[in-house]
Specification:
The protein is mostly helical. It has helices at 3-23, 27-57, 63-109, 112-115, 118-132, 137-161, 176-181, 184-199, 202-234, 236-244, 248-300, 306-326. The two termini are 14 Å apart.
Length: 327
């Protein structure tokens, strides 16, 4: 994206955010609350699973208390997340109709000469199209909610893996690799890898988006041809001529060929896009392997407990996944 396009995008986004806040002031606090609970829920299981594993290996005393705590937190956070999600959907639908009402009111109160200019008509068409498909202000809020959830996941993950930066006690005869793993620089290195590897998926994501966009353009042309056939067959006078001169078979065959062409394009694009996503998934699998190898070696050296292996590896994997999805 060019610098001028980025600046225009930021201005447009700021205008949409101000419009949403004016129409529904509680929308963004609700979005933050929903993201806060939704992103915290996986870390309850990550942290308590590690603690339960350590407790069981130590003899099992207090394991039931930890289990009940985990169940209780899952219930509270899960219920709160579902309630906020339901309220969020209501707010999003209300926002949808309020924005459409604002568009209509603006058009009704504008001067006719100004309203009929090409630039105003283009803006009205863009705004109206955004509210009748999966677009418009509510879609912007949804994307911002996803970004907020990813950012909070990164924050929770960093807080969880911060224990890796604490140096443990090593015996004097410990091997060199154990001393290296005990260094905070080793933990910083694995976190750098966890952040850097998802960034390598950016070219793959761009490639996948270009394939999807090309397929979308192809389907637009096919959909227009299908609409033309529909208008021909639904017109009484044209339909009468088609029956009279036995043109219905020719029109139907043409319509079927058009649909078959669209299906082939969609199938080919879907297979190609899925293959590209598979490559991106393989790249991100390296993060999981690196995280388990690093934490596992620290456990072998006696620097962390066995339960920390599952806890820290899960946190690093969640961190990498949040960065990848945000990108």
């Amino acid at each position: 994206m060019k610098k001028s396009e980025t600046a225009q995008f930021v201005r447009d986004l700021g205008g949409i955010v101000r419009l949403i806040h004016r129409e529904r002031p509680g929308m963004f606090p609700l979005t933050i609350g929903k993201s806060l609970l939704a992103s915290a829920l996986p870390f309850v299981n990550i942290i308590f699973t590690g603690r339960l594993l350590d407790c069981l290996l130590a003899g099992g005393e207090g394991a039931m208390a930890l289990a009940w705590q985990m169940i209780g937190l899952n219930f509270i956070l899960g219920l709160g997340s579902k309630l906020l999600e339901r309220r969020y959907l209501v707010e999003a639908r209300t926002l949808h109709w309020q924005i459409r009402e604002a568009i209509a009111w603006k058009c009704l109160t504008m001067d006719y000469q100004q309203l009929e200019t090409q630039s105003i008509m283009d803006k009205k068409e863009r705004a109206d199209r955004g509210t009748t498909s999966y677009g418009g202000a509510e879609a912007v809020v949804e994307y911002l909610a996803q970004l907020a959830s990813h950012a909070l996941t990164v924050l929770y993950a960093v807080l969880t893996v911060s224990r890796l930066f604490v140096k443990g006690t090593l015996p004097p005869d410990a091997p060199g690799w154990a001393a290296w793993l005990n260094s905070p620089w080793a933990a910083l290195g694995i976190l750098t890898i966890a952040l850097a590897v998802p960034l390598t998926s950016i070219p793959l994501i761009g490639w996948c988006n270009r394939v999807t966009a090309a397929c979308y353009d192809t389907l637009i042309d096919g959909s227009r041809r299908s609409s033309a056939f529909y208008r021909i067959t639904s017109d009484y006078s044209l339909g009468k001529d088609m029956r009279t001169y036995a043109l219905d078979g020719m029109a139907l065959a043409k319509c079927q060929r058009n649909m078959e062409s669209m299906c082939r394009s969609l199938t080919a694009a879907s297979i190609k896009a899925d293959s590209i996503r598979g490559l991106a998934g393989m790249v991100n699998l390296l993060i999981v392997l690196a995280a388990y190898a690093f934490v596992g070696l620290k456990a072998m050296a006696g620097l962390v407990s066995v339960g920390s292996v599952a806890m820290q590896a899960g946190a690093i994997t969640a961190l990498a996944g949040a960065v990848r999805q945000a990108v």
